[in-house]
Amino acid sequence: EHIAAFCGAAARGELEKMQRFFRIGLHVDETDANGRTALHVASCEGQMEAILRMLANGIEINVSNYDSRTALHLAASQGNTAVVEYLLEKKAEVNVKDRMGGTPLADALRHGHVQIQSLLRSAGAQ
């Protein structure tokens, strides 16, 4: 129950609500009923401040969801350039594969996110 509310707060960038969950000791790597962590949701929505807070509170940057997709996969797919750039700076795994064998670069190519393709290639994506 708490993790669903935490994921919702992360998606909307509700930092104060997120902070309350941190104070009560919510384990930030927990997944919701859809197999996503709040990092996955925030990366999809481009909620940079929420991402910063989660990483500061110990969330694993390469945690994968039900499809073995990471925050980098999701940010690349959604075209969230600033999130991709930040995740790469924090050493997110650039060539990680999801359960279908897709990489963040494949997501950026499929959705035509040229700047993200360049960022990923510069970071060693193949």
From TrEMBL:
Isomerase as a keyword? no
| Lineage top rank: taxon | Eukaryota
Q: What is this protein called?
A: Uncharacterized protein
User: Secretion signal: which residues?
Assistant: none
Q: Which InterPro entries match?
A: Ankyrin_rpt, Ankyrin_rpt-contain_sf
Q: Is Lyase one of the keywords UniProt gives this record? A: no
* GO terms of biological process kind: protein K6-linked ubiquitination
* Pfam families attached to this UniProt entry: Ank_2 (PF12796)
Molecular function (GO) terms for this protein are: ubiquitin-protein transferase activity
* UniProtKB keywords: ANK repeat, Repeat
Tell me where the ANK repeats sit in this chain: 34-66, 67-99, 100-126
